[in-house]
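Throughout our pipeline, every protein is held as a single compact record rather than as scattered files. Nothing more is needed to write down the fold, since each code stands for a local backbone conformation. The record that follows is passed on verbatim for readers who wish to inspect the format.
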Amino acid sequence: MPKGKVRVYKKDQDGALQFIGEDEIDHTPRDEKIRLFIGDAFDLIGEQKQLNYVRVSDRVSRYTYEISLRNHKDSM
């Protein structure tokens, strides 16, 4: 793909296209993957809570986390 701006749209419930974000990409060779950052989700809230920590050795530690997600939007 050539270098440039990529715009992403999604169909809404009525079938109309809604702009959801855009990003810039560099020249990308054929069959290579690209990543797009199309914005933040303002209606999703994520929280992490550390539950446990164990020092296995001088160079290894083990952590346990609880991850919670809340969606403030009526639909997905």
Notes: The mean pLDDT is 91. The CA atoms of residues 45 and 70 lie 5 Å apart. The longest strand covers residues 44-55. The beta strands are 4-11, 17-25, 44-55, 61-71.
